[in-house]
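Hi there,

I know you've been waiting on this one. I reran it after we fixed the sequence typo, so this is the corrected version. Both the input and the resulting structure follow.
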Amino acid sequence: MKKADKHINSQVKKKQSPLLIFIITFVVLTVLTSFQSLILGLYIDFDHVPVKYVFTMNIYWLIVSVIFTIITRYQIKKRFEKPVLRLADATRKVANGDFSIYIKPMHTIEKADYIDAIFQDFNKMVEELGSMETLKTDFFSNVSHEIKTPLSVIQSYAQALQKEDLSAEKRKEYTDTIVTSSKRLSGLITNILKLNKLEKQTIQPKVEPYDVCRQLCECALYFENLWEKKEIEFIVEIEDSAFIEADESLMELIWNNLLSNAIKFTAPGGIVTLQQFSREDEVVVTISDTGCGMSEETMAHIFDKFYQGDTSHSTEGNGLGLALVLRILQLMDGTITAGSRLGEGSTFTVRIPAVMQKEEEFHE
């Protein structure tokens, strides 16, 4: 703490002086004694009080002032200066990027005072800052990796296309690869921007009542070529109509992400099921597949940014889809839960508050 003390002392321009405390204490005691003498003078004749007694009293108050100053200075240093120096030293280290700092409270929880409360809040703040710094570092690391991968592919195949003796078949293959990588890169940047706007709440959801069953059908048909190509049996069990109040364009991102994942992780010949039903106060949508499933460890991180549990499909996505889904549902007062077993497929369940008005009102 000596270095910290020197650092703080170099910044402090005005310090508390023990001499000032002593002078103030002595003056206050002298004034109080003078008032006391004036009051007692009404009943006691001070003209016959020996000068020696008056001198002794002054010496007495002088000693009292010295003792009071020492005790006050000790209490200030113990209860104020030392804790503040500890806090200042810890704050300086945090400012320099050290988020491992922890200030031990001065008392137990039962005897905690205001300084202890400040220390506890400081420790909590540093813990949160450390978590944010870790997330930020991981985020940039993941973004750099995800961007670098398609760029490397594009660069490699673009160089290969420069070969003069390349066959038309190979040229088309390389061109298709470049287009695919470009689309993946574009999708990554788009998702990053969307997620950033959602987290900063710069996107203002346009909440309106609409038929979610119609939207589910439209989204499912968008993936028809994919499930037919993989010979996946696509089962749909939904109502004729069900109305929710949400941002239709943002909700479309949810269904597209969940359907895309279900088809992507389902092996050829598997089954993907889209179900929807209404309850009194909510509309429930489930999307199930018979794909590879997820382990408990993967389940704990599926909504984290850039997390991809199944590395065999890592080239088909960027790990931002479910993070987007979760953030959108938080804005729409909805929820999402996941259930899965390794090798047995996964089921995602979305719950959205239902519109209480009757369906006919939306067709008037």
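Quick highlight: The longest strand covers residues 345-353.

Best,
R. S.
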